[in-house]
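Q: What residues go here?
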């Protein structure tokens, strides 16, 4: 019972504080949108906003490994997907990118509105027209020098084991001749499993930024082969799920 109460209180805390954080985000957007074409300042502020909720939850210990591997480049960044917490922990990396996220997230008051301010990229899963528009939006973002970040599994894994990777991210990397940045996330499923909003005690969360994969390494591969190769690399660095 107490675990459920803690979970509910944390959600209420997020909802209430989001009023304050969104007001600042809107002010930053108004002050910078005309000269910060990539909205970098707003993205870094959004990273702070997301990280705040991890900092104030002492039960969640988050470590980021390999941040020094991120260069001053445009990437197609991909990771495994275990939990809603993955969004917060990826923001903890503090590097500029545009999210590709399902449409439902954009409908969340305040948080979803901030995603629209950031010009993150919306996707309606299973909708062919939306997938086509998403790819066009990603191509424009990449051409402007923005990295993008995607969860190629398409949805959260209930078991912690990686689902097959969809090919969209790898088509973008191939077509734009850009490196892929693999990221492995461990522990978020234990902290907040799919379909659960209960508190699950003290948990260690680890984000590993792996070596980038230059476009030359997969230029001769099909997108399916590239997806399988990247999935294998990430899976090798994801901690086994807790029974």
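A:
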């Amino acid at each position: 019972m107490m675990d459920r109460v803690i979970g509910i209180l944390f959600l209420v805390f997020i909802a209430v504080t989001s009023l304050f954080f969104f007001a600042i985000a809107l002010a930053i957007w108004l002050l910078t949108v005309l000269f910060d074409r990539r909205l970098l300042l707003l993205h870094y502020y959004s990273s702070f906003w997301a990280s705040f909720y991890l900092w104030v939850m002492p039960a969640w210990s988050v470590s980021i490994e390999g941040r020094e591997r991120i260069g001053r480049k445009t990437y197609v960044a991909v990771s495994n997907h275990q939990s809603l917490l993955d969004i917060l922990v990826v923001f903890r990396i503090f590097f500029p990118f545009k999210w590709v996220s399902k449409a439902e997230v954009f409908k969340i008051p305040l948080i979803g509105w901030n995603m629209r301010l950031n010009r993150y990229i919306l996707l309606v899963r299973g909708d062919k027209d939306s997938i086509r528009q998403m790819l066009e939006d990603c191509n424009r973002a990449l051409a402007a020098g923005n990295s993008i970040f995607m969860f190629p599994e398409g949805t959260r894994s209930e078991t912690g084991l990686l689902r097959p990777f969809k090919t969209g991210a790898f088509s973008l990397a191939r077509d734009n001749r850009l490196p892929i940045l693999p990221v492995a996330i461990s522990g978020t499923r234990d902290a907040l499993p799919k379909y659960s909003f209960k508190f699950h005690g003290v948990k260690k969360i680890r984000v590993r930024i792996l070596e980038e994969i230059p476009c030359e390494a997969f230029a001769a591969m099909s997108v399916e082969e590239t997806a399988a190769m990247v999935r294998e690399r990430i899976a090798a660095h994801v901690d086994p799920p807790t029974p």
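A: Context that may help when evaluating the design: The chain has one domain: 2-235. The longest helix spans residues 2-32.
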